[in-house]
Amino acid sequence: MVCVPAPPLLALRGVCKRFGVVQVLTDIELEIRAGEVVALLGDNGAGKSTLVKVISGVAPADTGVIEWEGRTVHIRRPQDARDLGIATVYQDLALCGNLDIVGNLFLGHEIRRLGFLDEVEMERRTRDLLKRLTRGLPDLRSPIVSLSSGQRQTVAVARSLLGDPRILLLDEPTASLGIEQTSEVLDLVDHLRDRGLGVLLISHNMADVKALADRAAVLRLGCNNGFFNVNTASQEEIISSITGAAENVPHRVAHREVDW
After folding, report:
1. What's the pTM?
2. Which domains does the chain have, with CATH numbers?
């Protein structure tokens, strides 16, 4: 019996994005499977942030095909991405420093009982979720401003997991972190992969990529410039693709363009 591999959770086929007269993304191909970490790499201006906005529905693609578990879907707004099971943690984390951990996790999605905030239930859910993500629980009523950068990153990830997503987009999660805090975040991402989530990791840190990612996709000037198995590719090969010293633009997969 021939085993047919399951389709990827998310697949982009020939995705393009333009802002005015500027073509930002051209014929982008990308696949993310359950239980793997894909690093999205590229120099400044390569199109990484725009690609994340396309996937998260903030800036819908102009043309191309997006597939979810093998079927074509349309992501025109952030709610479409969330409904599919795509969550995003941006680099600025978007946390409210004056609110505590519980307040940040449920901001805009508060649990109410008989018309009043159910603080007990929200705190219980927060504690249960953080227990699955980290070994050392901070005081759940601590204001965000009092937490370390690593703890804030964990809170932002925990908030994104409230909706039980299947894919998590992480934008530079270890930027500006120290060695110990970076280790905590990498452990967290590794734990998410073990839970079966697909993770798209945007990073400039090659050490993090080599330590954590399964595959790497390189963008250059808004185009694909190489796909790598991180376990077998050398750091020099990947960096050459990022800088343009090696032009590794893959063969374009035939696709049907769809105007959205």
Report:
1. 0.85
2. 1-85+165-251+256-260 (3.40.50.300), 96-163 (no CATH)
